[in-house]
Amino acid sequence: MEGKEEPRIGVYICECGLNIAATVDSEQVAKWAEDLPNVVVSKFYKYTCSEPGQVMIKDDIKEFGLNRVVVASCSPRMHEPTFRNAVKEVGMNPACFEMANIREHCSWIHKDKEKGTKKAFELVKMAVAKASLLTPLEPDEADVTHSALVVGGGVSGVQAALDIAGRGYPVYLVEKEPTLGGNAAKLGKWFPLQQCAETCLGSCAYCILVPDLRDCINDPNIKVFTSSEVEEVDGYVGNFKVKIRKKPTYVDPKRCVACDLCAEVCPVSVKNEFNLGMDERKAIYIPFKDAVPKTYTIDKENCIHFSEGECVENPKCKEVCFWKAVDFDQEEEVEEVEVGAIVLATGHDILDADERPQFLHQHPRVISTPEFERLSCIVGPTKGSLDIDGKTPEKVVFIQCVGSREKEGNAYCSRVCCMVTAKEAHTVKQKLPDAKIIVYHSDVRTFGKTHEEFFVKVKDEGVEYRRRERDGDIHVEEKGDKVVVKCEGHPDEEADLVVLAVGMIPREDTLEMSRILNVSRSGDGFFLEAHPKLRPIDTFTDGVFLAGSCQAPKDIPDSLAQASGAAARACGIISKEKLLLGENVAFVDQDLCIGCEACLESCQFNAISMVDKDGKMVAYVNEALCKGCGTCIASCKSGAIQQRGYNDEQLLKMISVLAESEPGG
Amino acid sequence: MADEFEPNILAFCCNWCSYAAADLAGIGRMEMPTNVKVIRVMCSGRVKPEFVIKALSQGIDGVLVLGCHIGDCHYITGNHRTLKRFEVLTRLLGHMGIDPRRLRLDWASASEGDRFTEIVTEFTNTIKELGPNNLADYHGRKAARVSQ
Fold this sequence. Notes:
By secondary structure, chain A is of the alpha/beta class. Chain A folds into five domains: about 10-135, Rossmann fold; about 150-245 and about 335-345, FAD/NAD(P)-binding domain (3-Layer(bba) Sandwich), CATH 3.50.50.60; about 260-320, no CATH class; about 350-505, FAD/NAD(P)-binding domain, CATH 3.50.50; about 585-645, Alpha-Beta Plaits (2-Layer Sandwich). Chain A is built from 19 helices and 32 strands. The radius of gyration of chain A is 33 Å and the shape is elongated. The mean pLDDT of chain A is about 95. Helices cover about 45% and strands about 15% of the residues of chain B. Chain B has helices at about 20-25, 50-55, 80-95, 115-130, 135-140, 140-145; strands at about 10-15, 35-40, 60-65, 105. Chain B has a four-stranded parallel β-sheet with strand order 2-1-3-4, with helices on both faces. Chain B starts with 8 loop residues before the first strand and ends with a helix. In chain B, about 55% of the residues are buried. The interface between A and B is large, with 48 and 46 residues.
């Protein structure tokens, strides 16, 4: 074992041209370093990172039998990988390489060459002290499960699943609702509308979304779980174990042909969630006609069979079903799957406009933008009619930023509402060319590709945009059978229809999901990305990626782009045979461990657990979960936990050599 | 000038924020006293309170512990631990007869090279005012350093 050998250290002091040499006498430092314990050779060089510099080190390793190398040059954040690779090429263990930063931390910040030289030597001395205690390490590897889990079957989740499956890997797609499609399925036309026929008043969900959903459910690589939830996630990157709970739907999807006979005889009518409560559905229902999977579901809470034991209706749904699909005995199932990576695409909720009472949403003439989507849609509850009490609206007023960009409440911009409003105003123009349309906005943000052009077009169509102060008063009052919009700085507007552009909010279950997957949330409640600029798709939990509006409000193109990105990131993991585990992970000397559990509490990543060792409970670090922060080590009183590359002995040695006397003295 | 006390100061910097801030101070050629020498750790949460006690009792004149700003920790809450531990440690130092001002816990993000410079300069001045760590006498090194 190299580790048991006497350390033979080579020290290389870089001049970095004049970058170091101007304030540090590298030659002098190298000379002083010759006398440090275990140093076999000490040299200075003009550009150590250059090819000849690296060759010099490699030759010395061979000639002098070096097993430790210290380079004093720039920041290790710059060239540590360079030198580690170099020493590895000649068979030295890269973990036995150490750097002293005498450029950023010394020559560049000091002018006095004498003091700079002395400080540089102090830094070299500390690095040499640490190097003498370094031990060779072999990187640990873990096997990888070549499959992925996608949580959420909206546009983002479906895109991610299709992308991953398209590369040949099995995917488990889990959706809470009985159908795939999520929020996007409830929309009328999706913006940008440039590709759409002017004459089309249909729903993009049917034209564009449903075919994708069908591809997803028909893909042999994708196993879709609808009416299901992720209950538990265990394990770590490359090897997650996931428990999926599938709720009974009491209809066998393999037998159901969605003929609707069962719903026709069902005596129970309840509010239809898919149409946002604007019409009714039966207790046995399909969310929308083209739902995927195309199968009915029994809503247990409202079904008389379950509430009273026997349905009063004759014939009953079960009897009329020619295919014998209705099965009241269906039970909940729990399935465990193993995956290497997870894409979180749980989407968003929409702000309930009732929560902003100043806008009088409960009034029949006041609706929200999602309600407008359903009403204007040809397959919606009114078959596309905007009439109220049989009368065609003559004046329609839109109010933007309801529940977004608030002084108190949601501070963020929901990013889609400006285009949603422009699109809906355009739809009103198409349907009711004579209607007067007013939009109250507080800054229009149509920043997406072709969005601004569309906004200009809508204005040119005669939609009146009125700017209001973001914090100024705006509210809706009842007046006779109509409503009046009162906005500070503008005349009151009596309206037949008011549409509130409500914002996106984090899903109700975000907190629960964040706990199940150990994923953080940002201040606004959405899932938090690992880095706002450089790692917008990753989370702090390795192997878990974000797609779509669960991370922040997004429109469909942006959600899909992120979903494809998340799929690519996930494939980057599941395509590997082995995963290299972190180099600075913690490990436990179980003989020293006293089982106090202080480390357990200090670990943010659930990497530490207690295991039985010969009848004694001791700590154990799962290297695949450990991120190498070392916080547990600082809490360990017995010194049983240590960290690769930063153990107590090494750091204490650095401290004591610094406390020793000055160089040359 | 010749007999001015030049303190020997140790700084623990976390890899992700404060060490990067120190690098940035270098890149920006921000001049500062030569007294502070940095030990890199992955997270300020790695700094065992014993390290500080050992450093001060062996005669190091001051110890800086620099992490990411609270809320910005690369390891989510590593620096929360540091903060908690150091509240206790600061009180403990007083009981041990070490001036708690010889320890400073602070935060600097990777973009705050100027803040790093400021902290280093301020802390060096504080330690200069406090004078040599009297525990250094025990190790017989104080006289040597003052005469530099």
